Amino acid sequence: MGNYFTVFELLKRAKDLTPNVEIVYGDNIYTYKEVYERVVKLANSLHNLGIKKGTTIGVADWNTNRFVELLYASALLGCVIYPVNIRLPPEQIIWTIKFANVEWLFISRDFEALSKVFDSSKVVYLDGNNGQISYEDLISKGAMEKVNYDVKGGDPYSILFTSGTTGKPKAVMYTHEKVIHGALSIVHQLGLYNSPAKLSSNDVIMPFIPFYHLWSWGSAFIASYLGAKYVLTGKFDPKTAIQLIKRENATWINAVPTMIQMILSSGEQLPGVKALIGGQAIPYNVAKSISDAGLKFSTIYGGTDMLAISISIIPGKFQVNDDIDYLRTTTHPVPFVEVKVIKPDGTEASYNEIGELYVRAPWLPGSYYNNPEETQRAYDENGWFKTGDLAIITEEGGLRIVDRLKDVIKSGGEWIPSSVLESIISEIPAVEQVAVLGYPDQKWGERPMAVVKLKPGQRTDQKEILEYLRDAVNKGRINKWWLPDKIVFVDNMPLTSTGKINKLALRKDVGIG
């Protein structure tokens, strides 16, 4: 692609189309025109520091205007940006910085410890002066002349890392054109189809997903493309989030279910707010609470190594009995995504048959960065990416994720999808979080164990949970032999860097390795 198909061109579009629309972070309020000018100056100053096309920079910060500016300055300059996953364990953070060949590190004071393991002469503090380089000085002293740094759509733009719950994180490299394709797939699905999380240029976009997770699901790029007001929250805090929604009249948010639960626990009503929710399955009780609070929501399925794959919509002529349940369980592939489900015998599944989900899309990275072994495992010879998720495709073309292949319980040669049991148990009012794990069984190979965290001040017991599950059996929702053999109560659930329940850590916590 030509140099017009780059991430920076999204900001240029916003500057030309909606120059007076604002990007807000606390007391820092800049119009798109002002952000454009700051970005040009920043890019020229970075070039004077020796940061050039192909240089990798790392950014460790919360969702701030500075991060947005670096996302665009790196795009103009042609350097590769690594949004450091600050929720990884410290040793993994250091490993990812080295693996990505980061040459310059941009950090806020909250992550000052990183400066101790990095060349301090190439560290820039984003919220102050380390005695050497000031971020604001880079902007104020930068030249306001847009230089052609010869950046093209096919050039590398950003390196990301998976969450690393089963070993070292895997890296993926995305080009400018792949990032743009991925972001616009979300815009088109939410803008052109019957989606509760409808998105337009009139929305005030407030992302809760951190930038280290797929650039906040591409929200900065989406906002610029639409010319929409963009409000940043810094470090996520539910109380601050509610205040900002009201102060800035936010109409569209993105979040993982854990964040939504934290916001709803305040008892606030948020009518008129639309939410795009993903990262893990939404339990029915949470989906019901979202609806009761006045929020409209859609769910998104994707990942670090595939970007957006599908988003829930209500197909034109298709009737559903329960919109809430349908939207939380069923998504539809975004434009230009191909999906298929492969059964254990290697044949392609028919409608409503379970198997591993394979996907193809124009924005797939095509490989894991400098990792040919994982690449060979993940891609077949025709470019299909093996997601590692169990899924079914419904007759109306919907996609339902049943479980992670590594999480599914294999009992007596049959599959028990843990996510289905988790969803049903989560319907019990006293339950806040639940994870279903497989534990070794001499006769069956594996049997299910439910690990439950209760809401503060709420009570239930093993007997009540089993009675609820038996009622689900009687209603035909699950098979009788799926019932957990053990139910364990815990005070805390370990979470991954993206807010999901960390089943690997939980298995150790409950003593099943």
From TrEMBL:
A GO term for molecular function: ligase activity, forming carbon-sulfur bonds
Provenance organism: Sulfolobus acidocaldarius (strain ATCC 33909 / DSM 639 / JCM 8929 / NBRC 15157 / NCIMB 11770)
PANTHER family xref list: LONG-CHAIN-FATTY-ACID--COA LIGASE (PTHR43767), MEDIUM-CHAIN-FATTY-ACID--COA LIGASE (PTHR43767:SF11)
Lineage top rank: taxon: Archaea
Presence of keyword Magnesium: no
EC number: 6.2.1.-
Family statement drawn from the similarity comment of this UniProt entry: Belongs to the ATP-dependent AMP-binding enzyme family.
Pfam families: AMP-binding, AMP-binding_C
Keyword vocabulary terms for this entry: Ligase
Keyword NAD attributed: no
Top-level class of the enzyme under EC nomenclature: ligase
Protein name: Medium-chain-fatty-acid-CoA ligase
InterPro entries, A to Z: AMP-bd_C, AMP-bd_C_sf, AMP-binding_CS, AMP-dep_synth/lig_dom, ANL_N_sf, ATP-dep_AMP-bd_enzyme
Domain (AMP-dependent synthetase/ligase) ranges: 18-369
